[in-house]
Design a protein that fits this description.
It contains 16 helices and five strands. It is α/β, with parallel strands linked by helices. It has three domains: 129 residues, Rossmann fold (3-Layer(aba) Sandwich), CATH 3.40.50; 64 residues; 127 residues, Zinc Finger, Delta Prime, domain 3 (Up-down Bundle), CATH 1.20.272.10. It has a five-stranded parallel sheet, sandwiched between helices. Strand 3, helix 4 and strand 4 form a beta-alpha-beta unit. The longest helix has 21 residues. It is globular and about 70 Å long.
């Protein structure tokens, strides 16, 4: 059974009992959050969550098979098994125990699974399975999640503050949760001002995001080549870089397209929701350096390379380095269809 990640909150806990729940995809941050959401539905029951890896089960499958087929002689609590790094190899074991999960459940976590994956087919079609693909969330998805967290915490934030949090999140739920957790410390002691939001949203990781954007959109080949050569220093993988760039470029295009007849300064000032003062100079410089058509081409190519990675995971690092070199050098803009 296929289920959208956005639908999970609408389901009662009985929906998950006796089920094998497959969470798969490139968005491991979302998978982690969905694990927590499912488990917390059972917080009123005596449960023990066990995190194990597929490799451990493959080495000794009888342990988990005996537990679900025969039950535990000593443990009166319910066990919830979260099996991480799953592949098709786990399927033989799952098929042996799936009819005996009863009022418990098993969560399988996996990375990208191709259409011909036996594990993915099991998740989508087996009557005892629930399958939730975890793709990269959009800005709108993250905004919905943020507003939900704001309502739960009973915080009062302006649209500008909400926009700042979203733009600093790298479209990750974990980042949103970190910010909300910090803001909860402020709400009873002082008013949550823009300066408080700035302080909470500014951490070393977010500064790295800004630095990556500035370098890759600078059109300075020496800086771009240096980044490509030293990408590991930024502790970002290629998917994260794509997400950071895409989110920023979409915003830049919105500013340009919504105010075609205005100067750059006027476009920035009139943009809604308002742009945080600290970002205005950065955005202004990029608007001066880039034409709308070039940004659109680059955005299109970002989407293509991400789709390519989802279909084929061979030598992705090399492909991505080549992609950056080809798409961000000055020469690349002479060829409208430049894409590996």
């Amino acid at each position: 059974m296929l289920l959208k990640s956005q639908e999970l909150n609408l389901k009662e806990k009985d929906f998950f009992k006796g089920k094998i729940i497959l969470l798969y995809g490139e968005n491991q941050d979302l998978i982690k959050d969905l694990n927590e959401q499912i488990i917390i539905k059972f917080s009123d029951e005596k449960i023990i969550t066990k995190n194990i890896f597929e490799d451990d089960i493959i080495k000794d499958p009888e342990n988990i098979i005996n537990y679900y087929l025969n039950g535990s002689l000593f443990d009166q609590n319910k066990n919830i098994s979260v099996i991480k790094s799953c592949s098709d190899k786990i399927l033989d074991t799952i098929n042996k125990i799936k009819n005996n999960v009863n009022d418990s459940f098993i969560i399988l976590n996996s990375e990208i699974l191709l259409k011909n994956s036996k594990l993915r087919q099991f998740g989508e079609y087996d009557k005892l399975a629930i399958c939730i693909p975890c793709y990269q969330e959009t800005k709108l998805d993250i905004k919905r999640f943020l507003i939900q967290q704001i309502q739960i915490s009973k915080l009062q934030l302006s649209e500008t503050q909400i926009e700042i949090i979203i733009n600093s999140s790298s479209l990750k739920r974990s980042k949103i949760k970190e910010v909300i957790e910090k803001l909860n410390l402020y709400k009873n002691s002082e008013k949550i001002t823009d300066s408080v939001i700035e302080e909470v949203c500014t951490d070393p990781d977010l500064k790295k995001n800004d630095e990556i954007i500035d370098i890759l959109l600078s059109k300075k080949e020496s800086q771009i080549n240096s980044f490509i050569s030293n990408m590991s220093n930024y502790e970002k993988n290629f998917i994260e870089v794509i997400i950071i760039l895409r989110s920023f470029i979409i915003r830049i295009l919105e500013i340009q397209k919504n105010n075609k007849n205005l100067s750059i300064d006027e476009s920035i000032e009139r943009y809604k929701p308002p742009i945080f003062w600290k970002e205005k100079d950065r955005i202004k410089n990029i608007l001066k350096n880039w034409k709308v058509n070039d940004l659109e081409k680059f955005l299109s190519n970002l989407n293509k390379i991400e789709t390519s990675f989802k279909k084929d995971d061979l030598d992705q690092d090399t492909q991505f380095y080549y992609f950056l070199t080809q798409n961000l050098s000055k020469v690349s803009f002479k060829n409208a269809n430049n894409f590996i």
